[in-house]
Amino acid sequence: MTEHDIVIIGGGPAGLAAAVAARNAGVTDLLILERDSFLGGILNQCIHNGFGLHTFQEELTGPEYAARYIEMVKKENIPFLLDTMVLDISPEKEITMVNREHGLSVIKARAIILAMGCRERPRGALNIPGYRPAGIYSAGTAQRFINIEGKKVGREVVILGSGDIGLIMARRMTLEGAAVKVVAELMPYSGGLKRNIVQCLDDYNIPLKLSHTVVDIEGKERVRGVTLAKVDENRVPIKGTEEFIRCDTLLLSVGLVPENELSKGAGVRISPVTGGPVVDDRLETCQDGIFACGNVLHVHDLVDYVSEEASLAGTSAASYINAKEKKGSRAADIETGNGVRYTVPQKLDIETRKDQVTVRFRVADVYKDRYISVYYDGTRVLHKKKRVLAPGKMEQVVLNRDSFKKHPALQKIVVCTEVE
Ligand SMILES: Cc1cc2nc3c(=O)[nH]c(=O)nc-3n(C[C@H](O)[C@H](O)[C@H](O)COP(=O)(O)OP(=O)(O)OC[C@H]3O[C@@H](n4cnc5c(N)ncnc54)[C@H](O)[C@@H]3O)c2cc1C
Q1: Is pLDDT at 84 greater than 80 in this prediction?
Q2: Residue 326 has pLDDT above 70, yes or no
Q3: From the CA of 46, how far away is ligand 1's center (Å)?
Q4: What is the best residue among 47, 83, 112, 116 to mutate for testing ligand 1's pocket, by most ligand atoms within 8 Å of CB?
Q5: Which residue minimizes the CA distance to atom 16 of ligand 1?
Q6: Could you identify which of 69, 174, 256, 302 might form a hypothetical disulfide with 118, taking C-beta atoms 3.0 to 4.6 angstroms apart as the criterion?
């Protein structure tokens, strides 16, 4: 069995940035495993612009952003295996994988970085009645058909779900000559970024119906139309509000699920809220030497944050195998308070922490003129006003190392929203 210092599972933006950071931190024996035939992950099908404003201060397309990191990986001679599917990871860090060249094989790693991204929630998770006609796609599948395989997906389209993928696809289908009749959203607010609502819907006069869902799909061979209905505050369809919309295509953009089957097999603890591993401030999971970053850890809005986070996972894994940093014996839990759904990380090593920590989180609802506050064992240490907070946008607070010095016995950090 061959052994490597660090093996990275997934060659998307997270895996690539983690590999480059680990190499820059002095690790020579690295290997990236990618099941697809090319590096770059989901970015390869995201041909719109809007990537890289933070990282490169430029507006790049998805493939251009990915290419920057692929170039770095190639320049650093970091080895990667394509068309290689990882099937299992054991708690002892043995990785079972399969590809055409080597068949089924097992390799061992001293440290592993999980960077498998996420998948889309399918129709089966939604309980929409009706047959299973052609013309129902997840938005990401439609995006792949159009942008990578050059296929036409449909002519008259209804989109369910107004997260970023749904919004981007409303514009993409329009540019491909389809009529996007409506984007329906179950929640009373959009799950996407404001800029995407403006640039993808408003600019093309595509209506957004909030608090609406699809209650029926008509058509046996091919979709012939869908019935939309308004929902009440409990998200239950309101009788009498049904409206039939003729279309041949229904795109579902109803959420992303981090791909953690491998992580679970390795004994990694998963958060029921993020669907990703519970990690400390080094992005290490509860399994010694197994780190996580990118969409497998929690669903991100911007790829720039994925790259930033993945660099931390890469340097942390490098420190782990070089035994440069010892874990402190005191860790504080990071918990959520009023209006905050989750935080990443969920634990913070306050003893050996050398610099600042970025804690990322999402809020539970749309809030206007609220404060984001941080409490150390009940004492408020941070309080900043935000004009708008929305679940579609990832938020962050930066905790300075000096602030821990004043709280040497710190046990619990709470991140919450406050009205005043
Ligand atoms: C439609 C859409 C639009 C977006 N628009 C924007 C935008 O405008 N701006 C922006 O900044 N961000 C945008 N994003 C978000 C950004 O693309 C993601 O945040 C980013 O790609 C996540 O990177 P990742 O490496 O974690 O995951 P991915 O890119 O999904 O990469 C994961 C990789 O792991 C591989 N993998 C998974 N399981 C295995 C296995 N078992 N064995 C081997 N390999 C495996 C996969 O094949 C994949 O290549 C968009 C995303 C989508 C889907």
Answers
A1: yes
A2: no
A3: 9
A4: 116
A5: 303
A6: 256
**Which structure tokens are listed for 133?**
């006609």
**Which pLDDT belongs to residue 161?**
95
User: Which atom of ligand 1 lies closest to the CA of 85?
Assistant: 42
* String of DSSP letters for 299-358: --S-HHHHHHHHHHHHHHHHHHHTT-SPPPS-EEEEEE-TTEEEEE-SEEETTT--S-EE
Q: Percent of the chain at pLDDT above 90? A: 86
| Dist. CA 302 → ligand 1 center (Å) | 10
Question: Cβ of 311: how many Cβ atoms within 10 Å?
Answer: 20
Residue range(s) occupied by CATH 3.50.50.60 in the chain: 1-120+255-325, 122-254
Determine the Cα–Cα distance for residues 386 and 215; give it in Å rounded to an integer: 36
| Rounded-to-integer distance, Cα 298 and Cα 308, Å | 14
Ligand 1 atom 27: residue of nearest CA: 117
Q: What is the CATH number of domain 122-254?
A: 3.50.50.60
Other Cβ atoms within 10 Å of 381 Cβ, number: 18
Q: Ligand 1 within 6 A of 31 CB? A: no
Distance 306 CA to ligand 1 centre (A): 9
Question: Which has the higher per-residue pLDDT, 407 or 77?
Answer: 77
Place of tokens 């409206």: 243
Rounded distance from Cα 13 to ligand 1 centre (Å): 7
SS3 (DSSP) at 197: helix
Q: Which residues pair with 64 in a beta bridge?
A: none
- Whether pLDDT at 324 is above 70: no
Q: Report which DSSP code applies to 200.
A: I
In short, whether 115's Cβ falls inside 6 Å of ligand 1 is: yes
Pick the CATH number of 1-120+255-325 from 3.40.50.2300, 3.40.50.40, 3.50.50.60, 3.40.50.1980: 3.50.50.60
Protein residue closest via CA to atom 45 of ligand 1 = 10
Contact 166 CB / ligand 1 (< 6 Å): no
Contact criterion met (CB below 8 Å) for 262 and 86: yes
Rounded to the nearest whole angstrom, what is the distance from the C-alpha of residue 321 to the centroid of ligand 1? Answer: 27
How confident is the prediction for the chain on average, in pLDDT?
94
Whether the pLDDT of residue 68 is over 90: the answer is yes
